[in-house]
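User: Sequence recovery, please. Input:
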């Protein structure tokens, strides 16, 4: 009896200790309460284009959203990458489209609109500059300065500028290309600066995909199944090379400016070149659409689109947007990948990085891990390329 009694009290003491001891912090749970703001084109559009245009948009109809039974204006069969990043940041509600009336923007909003560009004035869309101005209009009523400074600003834009340029200038020589890339990237820098003057300090910039490998580009330029349209890839590469150095300079000269660069170009390229390593069966044609690469017209009422049976086998859902399975992968990579994919830090590290503190690391070119579009034979045995 005595033994049982003391055992009970020992257990009791343990119980009390367990109940009142500070809980062990589980990784991912101590993320500060901040917001996620996204800017750019259709890849990050959470329904703004649908709100902006008077016409019916394909992304508002089945089969968009089909994996969630919810065609909500996003370009995927379900959620998009920022939805996953928001979830990993512990944000309890979906990041809404900023242009939609009566949405809850307390933990961020998407300002991205399909067809957005950096230059020009896109039809029924907004340039990045106009998106930033829209953010500024909404700021006072919704978010205070401290909250904005701690929050994450994700940007993906520029693809439409280069697709348009290539369409209008199919024979542009190297110097015309360089001049255009310089104009586009300077505009991007100005718009990021404007966002920084608006109080933002934590930036996630995504490099452009290998645009010539998008199913819609392969289809429109008749590249065949295993070739990409290289002029578009070259423009994307020239653009991407400028991003890191540009942001390094901003971090050096603008106090409190913090950033990271997500290497989307190689994330897509690796999946198209070694699809089975990443568990995609089809990466060069899309799941939904018509044409040689099934890349045109998904969701359009007057087009008899084909729809693949199993979305999760595909990298691309339509001619230029990824399936939910791929978007979820991107979300994980953005949030938690190593510097081979996102550098100098991932979103998880960026969120907890003290505000106003200078970055201890800079962006560096990753030549060794960069996959060359033309050289798919280069060692599938080197582990570091598999991310
Ligand atoms: C908005 O969402 C937050 C959760 O992030 C919640 O606390 C708040 O009550 C919501 N506001 C409204 C008006 O629903
Ligand atoms: C596309 O290119 C043409 C010709 O250069 C230009 O006039 C137009 O503004 C561009 N459109 C967009 C949306 O950038
Ligand atoms: C898909 O495209 C990549 C890159 O262009 C190429 O290496 C690969 O062979 C293609 N796959 C198929 C099945 O054609």
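Assistant: Recovered sequence (387 residues):
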């Amino acid at each position: 009896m005595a033994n049982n009694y003391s055992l009970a009290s020992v257990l009791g003491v343990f119980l009390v200790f367990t109940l009142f001891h500070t809980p062990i912090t589980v990784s991912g749970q101590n993320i500060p309460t901040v917001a996620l703001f996204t800017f750019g084109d259709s890849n990050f559009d959470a329904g703004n284009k649908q709100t902006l245009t008077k016409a019916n948009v394909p992304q508002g109809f089945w089969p968009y959203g089909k994996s969630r039974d919810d065609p909500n204006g996003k370009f995927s069969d379900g959620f998009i990458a920022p939805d996953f990043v928001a979830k990993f940041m512990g944000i309890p509600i979906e990041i809404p489209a900023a242009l939609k009336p009566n949405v809850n923007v307390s933990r961020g909003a998407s300002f991205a609109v399909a067809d957005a560009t950096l230059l020009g004035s896109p039809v029924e869309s907004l340039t990045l500059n106009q998106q930033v101005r829209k953010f500024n209009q909404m700021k006072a009523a919704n978010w205070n300065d401290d909250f904005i400074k701690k929050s994450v600003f994700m940007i993906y834009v520029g693809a439409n500028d280069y697709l348009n340029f290539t369409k209008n200038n199919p024979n542009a020589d190297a110097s015309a290309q360089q001049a255009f890339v310089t104009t586009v990237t300077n505009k991007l820098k100005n718009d990021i600066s404007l966002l920084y003057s608006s109080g933002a300090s934590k930036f996630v910039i995504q490099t452009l995909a290998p645009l010539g490998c998008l199913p819609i580009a392969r289809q429109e330029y008749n590249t065949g199944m295993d070739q990409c349209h290289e002029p578009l890839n070259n423009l994307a590469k020239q653009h991407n090379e400028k991003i890191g150095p540009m942001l390094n300079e901003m971090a050096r000269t603008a106090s409190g400016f913090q950033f990271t660069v997500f290497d989307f170009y190689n994330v897509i390229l690796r999946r198209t070149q070694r699809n089975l390593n990443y568990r995609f069966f089809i990466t060069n044609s899309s799941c939904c659409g018509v044409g040689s690469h099934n890349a045109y017209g998904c969701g359009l009422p007057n087009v008899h689109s084909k729809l693949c049976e199993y979305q999760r086998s595909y990298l691309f859902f339509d001619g230029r947007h990824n399936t939910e399975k791929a978007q979820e992968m991107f979300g994980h990579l953005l949030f938690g990948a190593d510097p081979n994919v996102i550098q100098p830090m991932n979103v998880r590290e960026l969120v907890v990085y003290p505000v106003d503190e200078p970055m201890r690391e800079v962006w560096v070119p990753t030549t060794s891990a960069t996959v060359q579009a033309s050289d798919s034979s280069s060692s599938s045995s080197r582990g570091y390329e598999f991310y």
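The domain at 32-358 is CATH 3.40.50.1110 (Rossmann fold).
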